Amino acid sequence: MDSAFTSKIDRHLQIINTCLKTGPSNAFKQIAKTAWQALERDLAAGEPLKGAGALSLLHTAAKVGHQLGLEVKMVALPQGAYGEGLGGMTFTISTRSSEDQAKYLLQRYWECDGKPDFFDEQTLPDVVAAAKAIDDARFLEAEHLEKLLHEVYGPCFRCYQNREGRHVVHIQSLFDRDKLSALYGTLSLVRGPLIVTLEGGEGCDWKRRLEVLKDSKVKSLKVEGALDDSGAAQLALFLERHGCLEELYLPWTSLSEKGARKLFSALRPNETLRRLSLGGNELSDRAVSWLAINLVDSQLEVLELWCCGITDQGASSLEEASKLCPTLKILDRRLN
What we know:
Elements lengths: L2 H20 L3 H20 L3 E2 H17 L5 E6 H4 L6 E6 L3 H14 L12 H10 L3 H4 L1 H12 L3 E5 L5 E5 L5 H15 L2 E6 L6 H6 L8 E5 L4 H13 L5 E3 L7 H9 L9 E3 L7 H11 L6 E3 L7 H13 L5 E3 L4
């Protein structure tokens, strides 16, 4: 890191800090803002700062900028942009809006021959939105975007289209909450509404799996594989506490009577779920009766119960409940 250049930046910061500490007068504020403009100008003209010292210096600059009432962001620029720095990264600060910053990163991405290490999980959704805004067809091309997503988020998911033409993202290993939210947001920008699929099975930690869905804005969830009683209880708890899911697909999940009762109890307090698919699960008369009781006060519009082994008794209770549920439009009882 160039010591003369660093000293220059540090001097700007000292002037600003002195002005801010001296008093709240407009004269001092104006001097501070002028010094800030000089700092930004010097940063833009010189090479981005490198190394641990640079990161510390720019953190200080960001704090000072916030004191001046500016929206200041630390911007990490990868190796492909400006050469080797701390952990392959160099740093600068920016007062650009998120939209302008995204357009800038998109421009730099193509200038650097589309190097996949140029984005991270937080910046990619904004860059995809910027690409859509300027209609960058090359960036949004499906094969290119798929490759970029796997580079940024890792090979822990796959995407495909189901028979209805809906795009499905299958989570193959556990994400943290921020990563899932960013992935979902990025894919939704390009593919429209998505169905997120989680793998079930024996010994599955459903509490941890559903934890990552909080605040992720995931609207459609599908479980593949067995959903045991513990998983059904955790899913019921999630439906009661977090109003985000609109569609829940649980086909062939070996739902037990105990698990079904837990799940159906969550329909009444939930205000967002519009579609529930339970096809392929053997439902006893008692489970169906419990479903009918909770269906009346639910917000469901579509209830799929194909191939569930429903008896005439169960069908009768469902028929009565469906008449009392004002939102229900489709009750699918085929192959029973």
